[in-house]
Amino acid sequence: MKLAATAAEILKTPTFIKITAIAIASLTLFILANYYSASYSPLPSSSSSAATTHSLAASPTTESSSPPASPPPPPPPPPEVERMGIVDENGAMSEEFKVGEFDESLAEELRNASGGGAEDGSGGNGGGGSVKVDKFGVCDQKLTDYIPCLDNVEEIKKLNSTERGEKFERHCPGEGKRLNCVVPRPKGYQIRIPWPQSRDEVWFSNVPHKRLVEDKGGQNWIAIKGDKFVFPGGGTQFIHGADEYLDQISKMIPEIAFGRNTRVALDVGCGVASFGAFLMQRNVTTLSVAPKDVHENQIQFALERGVPAMVAVFATHRLLYPSQAFDLIHCSRCRINWTRDDGIWLLEVDRLLRAGGYFVWAAQPVYKHEVALQEQWKEMEDLTTRICWELVKKEGMIAIWRKPLNNSCYLSRDAGVQPPLCDSNDDPDIVWYVGLKACISRLPENGYGANVSMWPARLHDPPDRLQSIKLDAYISRKEIFRAEAKYWNEIISGYIGAYHWKELNFRNIMDMRAGYGGFAAALHDLGLDCWVMNVVPVSGFNTLPVIYDRGLIGVQHDWCEPFDTYPRTYDLLHTAGLFSIEQKRCNFSTIILEMDRMLRPGGRAYIRDSVSVLGELQELASAVGWVPALHDTGEGPHASWKILISDKRL
Known about the structure:
By secondary structure, this protein is α/β, with parallel strands linked by helices. It contains 20 helices and 17 strands. The longest helix is centred in the N-terminal third of the chain and has 24 residues. It is globular.
């Protein structure tokens, strides 16, 4: 009785009541959970593996209370592909297979991508990996003034004829015979005298050749004074000085207007380039050309003075400049018989001369009265009349002709008059290894090339020929032209600030991939007292007509071959994207050795390019004796392009 009473008391306690309530609640929740879980398919837990998740998703439960959704339609079968391997569609080995063709360029790309370079130490065709290149040796001292394509004696000896100057043209060394050493400098070489002092004097030790002094000293060309060559400013036909001679031309034809209407000139058979040197102070850029003949160092003297010049010859091929390039072409006793071979050399002058431009001829047939010389004058008069040039002035020793503005005179000539017009499909701007043609180059019917702005406006006015050159762009050409100008203006401003370009006194500059000439235009706008040889590679679009229409100078060239200039003739070599573009065509070491040949001791090379090629280029720069350093562009350290700046120290 007492035990029963105690149990009754326990049941009435609050603790027992709470425990009982919790137990009942738990039991209720358990029953409800079991009931509702039977209505749903099981879900994968968050800790399930990827394989378990994939299995559950691929095999939905059959216990679902709702009918499964209809499956989506199967995707279309993939297109049939031509199998190239030896494993069939079932994964079994097969004896029936086809071997694809070997893609050499793809193999080269894969080799470069994996960091492979030239294993022989000669420099490969690109690649961003680390490439070890052995240091190049110094060439024999006799190659001090070596121009590879003009001094190739072995090939010149094989020529069938040299009657028309073939031996002075390009004959480049073939594979295995190219320069593979660093061209030596003359003994006693010194850092160049800066411009404008160099116009009048240069170090004798830099160009130690007396032949011109012996031959032309009496004509006021050049003289030796102590340890220097001095240039009094005279020439064969202007022994009293180039300034007086230029004044005479200006008085004869005021419309020539040096520095306004006439901005770009060509001086043929230039001597030591005093004509061009003195035109620079009249805002005229003159390209002085002459062959490497008996007066073989005349172009070397011109470049040492800081005057634009290039080795070139009227022989059997077109000169490497576009049609309508020059506002004025000058020949003063240039020793060229313009009327021989049906006037083919004067027809090349006509191709190069801008519509409405002037040809200035100072020669003995103009003013002497010997029978033979007068006969030459009559032949010149006859030829110039047949090609529609107008003799606008003949005075003293000078005769000046003007080229017509359009084709109307050519088309109105009598039937059968020679020389004929060139075929309509002849492109007068294609010049790389193109032979001369005994015909008159047609002028564009739309007047392109004839109507350029006056200087200095023409430097920034998009020229008409921008619309006629071959480009990928069609309607946006003017915008691209202006964008390039702005781009280079900003970059050169940065170079001036960061690398102190104005203090470095660069004079002779080459842009090795010039585009529209925006780099050169920016140098002019920012006040650097220099000139730029704008090189347009043959592997790209020919923008040279635009460069000349802007009042700049340039040339077409293939960087797989040497350039026609003397060693040590440029203070700054600039490239932007050249090596990335040419890596499948040219050997990098070939280009770097050529750059070293052209670069003066004390000069610099700026290579702006993709990081994928700069590793090898840095090795090659060290191999030729430069001091290279890699710099970030304005885009920052993670940009795909960088700048390799290399000093060629004395």
